[in-house]
Amino acid sequence: MTEELKRDYREDLTLFEGAWSRGMAWLFGAAVIAYALLVAQGFALYVLTTLTLMVVAALGLNLLVGYTGQISLGHAAFLAIGAYTHVILYTQGAPLFVTALAGALTAGVFGFLIGIPALRLKGPYLAIATLGFQVAVDQILGRWDSVTGGRMGLAVPAMDVFGAKLGEHAKFLVCFAVCVSSVVGIYNLSRSRVGRAFVAIRDNETAAEAMGVGLVKYKTMAFALSAFVTGLAGALYAHLFDRINPSNFTLVMSIELLVMVVVGGLASVLGSVLGASLLVLLPQLISSFRDFQAVIVGGILIAVLLFEPLGMRGRWLRIKYYFKAWPF
C-alpha cells in the first residue's frame, strides 16, 4: 500500500502511474501507429485521423465543461475560427505550423472575449449565450464572401512541411502527435495550480473566491485555453477536406462534442478519449445497419448515461478497481 502513496508533487503530474501503465500506453500507441501506417488505407485512415482531432477538440471542451463547470453549445465555432484562420494564412504561403498556431491563438482570443460576458451567466443562460455565438459565427462565415468565400467556402491547400507535401499517412502522424501532446498537456494542466483553481470554481465559486481564487481571471482563462485547444484541432481538421464551408462546423457538431465529453466522462482526459472514440468509431462499426444507425447510436448513448452516470471512464474505473482487488 505504501508504494501507491505519492511522495513528490511531480508524481501527481504523471499521466501513467507505474511501469505496467506506461508499458501498456507505449504498446497501445505503437499498435495504433502500426495499424495506421501498415494496414489502414483510404477511408479507414481518414476515420483514424478524424478521431485524433476529435479527441483534441473534446479535450478542449472538457477543460471548460468538466473541469470548470461552464457549459458551452458553441464549440464548433472555435473549430471554425481555427480552421478559417489557418486556411486564409496558409494560402498566403505561411508555414503550416505557424498558421495552425495562429488559428489556435485567434480562437483563444475569441474564447477570452466570450468568457468576459460569461462571468455573469450560469447554467442554461450560459448555454444560450454560447449558442448565440455559434449562430453568429455561422452567419458571418456564410455571408462574408470576400474573406471566407461565403457558403462556397475556401479551398484547402495540401498539407506540406518545408515544401514537401504530406501524404495521408504523414498527415495522420502529424495529427496523432498533436493529439498525444494535447493529452499530456491537458492532463498536466488539470493537476497544476490552474487546473485545481478550475475545479474549485466548478465545485463552489463562493468557497473558491474565499480561498483566493480569482473568478474573473480563471473563468476567462478557462474559456481562452479551451478555445485555443479546440482552434488547434480545427486548423488541422480543415485538411480533411478539399474545401471548408460553414456546413462543416454546425450546431450539430457542437452538440456532438458535448455528448463526447458527457458520455466519456466529465473532468477526465481518459473520458475525452473514450467519448470521442465512441462517437467517431461506433457509426462506422454499425454502418451496415444504415437505416437504424441513428436509433442504435442514440440507444447506446442513453444506456451509458442511465447505467453509468460517470460515463465510460466510470465503467473503466469499476473494472480497474475490481481486478485490482481480485480475488478478495
Characterise the protein shown here.
The chain is built from 14 helices and four strands. The strands form two sheets. Strands 1-4 form a two-stranded antiparallel ribbon. It has helices spanning 19-39, 42-67, 75-90, 96-115, 123-143, 145-148, 168-191, 193-203, 205-210, 215-237, 251-264, 269-285, 293-307, 311-325; strands at 154-155, 160-161, 164-165, 243-244. It is globular. The protein has a domain at 40-249. 71% of the residues lie in helices and 2% in strands. By secondary structure, the protein is mainly α.
Task: Count every beta strand, where a strand is a DSSP E run of 2 or more residues.
Answer: 4
Please trace the helix and strand order, writing H or E for each element.
HHHHHHEEEHHHHEHHHH
Structural class: mainly alpha
The average pLDDT is: 89
As residue ranges, the low-confidence spans are: none
Terminus-to-terminus distance: 15 Å
Shape estimate: globular
Main beta sheet: strand number and arrangement?
2 strands, antiparallel
**Strand order in the sheet with the most strands:** 1-4
Helix content: over 70%
Beta-strand portion reads under 5%
Contiguous helical run count: 14
Summarize the structure.
The protein has 328 residues and is mainly α. It has helices at 19-39, 42-67, 75-90, 96-115, 123-143, 145-148, 168-191, 193-203, 205-210, 215-237, 251-264, 269-285, 293-307, 311-325, and strands at residues 154-155, 160-161, 164-165, 243-244.
